[in-house]
Design brief:
This protein is mostly beta strands and 382 residues long. It has two helices and 26 strands. The strands form seven sheets. Strands 1-26-25-24 form a four-stranded antiparallel β-sheet, with no helix packed on it. β12 and β13 form a beta hairpin. The longest helix is centred in the N-terminal third of the chain and has 12 residues. The structure holds 2-acetamido-2-deoxy-beta-D-glucopyranose (7 copies). InterPro entries: Integrin_alpha_N.
Length: 382
């Protein structure tokens, strides 16, 4: 009784102040590009770590791997990882994520194609629940420019008949996030798009829930002045219990991280903008190189205060943690601390999860392509 009381107090008073991830291990794998943790159903049932790799040659097929039950390795000594090949037949796989329940089985969706829009892209589904994992289907034959496309599931899981694609909007390219947002006319289906090749941050929505016919889509520019936008996520950045946008913009010389307050009516109100960090730069001078990559807040669970933010450097070759300087709602300043320096290489899509090692820790998986390693770091509540 007394013990659990003390534990509860400790959990509530934990904080993320000044926490910097510490190195705990590494996974050797050729050319890792993105990682994703895919939870097993049920509370505390563990995770698969999914890893996409890319050689950089668009005509060469690359490998997608899984490390089953990564938590078992983390609870032991974080060595001797067993990598299982999920697919070796996708050209340039990049972002990947678990999409369980959609098909009744644990399924991984893998986006593929070169970052440059001239290259055709696709989406593949890998079913993990069959005896051996295999690609169920390639669900589209590609989209060749910045467009948001709806791939209609017509009930076929058949490689030779790609899903029907419908263009929803022109412009969106690298990343977007969907949501239901409040307006003076009620809740609406919407998404925020990070536009890279048509640089800007925009919002798209429909007046009738679920009706994403292209003729019904409304859009609004939020900010077209910050350069190529790399990523956007929705998060309560300043801890005032209101959702904000956490946004990164790519640059070879001065990449930036921003927060935008989502107004009461997302269609008409003002998105107040705050600069969280700037000065990120590519470690090598090549066309198309830039920094930073994606920013992801660590939802603090039991700890008090603002969420720390894990930032991928992309072509800066680094990974960073951003810690709020104060818990004041109107103070948007952060310290920026690099915790990994992979030299002139690329640090790709990072993922992390709590409870992999212990209830008050986050394990962070950082793919460093040129080092042929996924580095593993841990952030402990203090
Ligand atoms: C820890 O790693 C070493 C190899 O580096 C291995 O021999 C040993 O069995 C591992 N221990 C556990 C508990 O996994
Ligand atoms: C590494 O893992 C493999 C397969 O799980 C096992 O056979 C081998 O004994 C392990 N090696 C060490 C050094 O732990
Ligand atoms: C799920 O996987 C099982 C094999 O484990 C298979 O029999 C079943 O058809 C799969 N379901 C779907 C919807 O693909
Ligand atoms: C896939 O679709 C093609 C063409 O519609 C058809 O000939 C083939 O039998 C289908 N394969 C399966 C496994 O359903
Ligand atoms: C979208 O709406 C237009 C105009 O109402 C209609 O002609 C078109 O068939 C619709 N498209 C789809 C995919 O439903
Ligand atoms: C959505 O509703 C607004 C009025 O609330 C209207 O101005 C707009 O034209 C509508 N959009 C479409 C695509 O019908
Ligand atoms: C980088 O960009 C930010 C945001 O626009 C700006 O405040 C800052 O002065 C710039 N830094 C340099 C060195 O140009």
């Amino acid at each position: 009784m007394i013990e659990s009381f003390v534990l509860a107090i400790a959990a509530l008073s934990g904080c993320w102040c000044d926490t910097v991830p510490t190195f705990v291990g590494e996974i050797e794998v050729r050319n890792p590009a993105y990682v994703s943790l895919y939870a097993y159903p049920g509370y505390n049932s563990g995770y698969d770590l999914l890893i996409s790799t890319s050689s950089g040659n668009p005509f060469e097929k690359d490998v997608v791997y899984r490390v089953s039950h990564i938590e078992e390795y983390m609870k032991n000594n974080a060595t001797n990882f067993t990598l299982e090949v999920l697919s070796d037949s996708i050209y340039w796989p990049n972002q990947l994520s678990g999409v369980s329940k959609v098909f009744g089985n644990r399924t991984v969706a893998v986006a593929s194609g070169n970052f440059a829009p001239k290259n055709r892209g696709g989406v593949s589904l890998i079913n993990l629940d069959k005896g051996a994992p295999y690609i169920t289907d390639v669900i589209t034959d590609g989209y060749a420019k910045g467009q948001l496309v709806w791939l209609e599931n017509q009930g076929n899981l058949n490689q030779s008949t790609p899903w029907k694609s419908h263009v929803i909007a022109e412009g969106p390219d690298v990343n977007f996030v969907s949501s239901r947002l409040q307006s003076t006319d009620g809740w609406m289906d919407a998404f925020f798009a990070a536009q890279y090749f048509n640089p800007g941050l925009r919002v798209f929505w429909v007046n009738e829930s679920g009706d994403w016919n292209e003729t019904k889509v409304n859009s609004r520019d939020i900010d077209m002045t910050i350069g190529p936008v790399f990523d956007v996520v929705i998060s309560d950045v300043n801890g005032d219990f209101e959702s904000d946008l956490l946004v990164t913009a790519h640059s070879a010389t001065n990449g930036t991280v921003w927060a935008y307050e989502i107004p009461d009516d997302f269609r008409t109100g003002e998105y107040k903008r705050h600069l969280l960090a700037s000065g990120f730069m590519s470690s090598s001078v090549h066309q198309g190189k830039g920094a930073p990559g994606s920013a992801r807040p660590i939802s603090h669970g039991t700890a008090s205060g603002k969420d720390p933010i894990i930032l991928s450097g992309d072509d800066s070759g680094q990974a960073y943690v951003l810690n709020a300087r104060s818990n004041a709602k109107d103070d948007w300043s952060y310290t920026v601390t690099p915790f990994l320096d992979a030299g002139t290489g690329n640090v790709g899509g990072i993922d992390f999860a709590g409870g992999v090692y212990s209830y008050n820790s986050y394990d962070i998986f950082v793919p460093a392509k040129n080092k042929n390693k996924v580095y593993i770091y841990r952030l402990m509540e203090n």
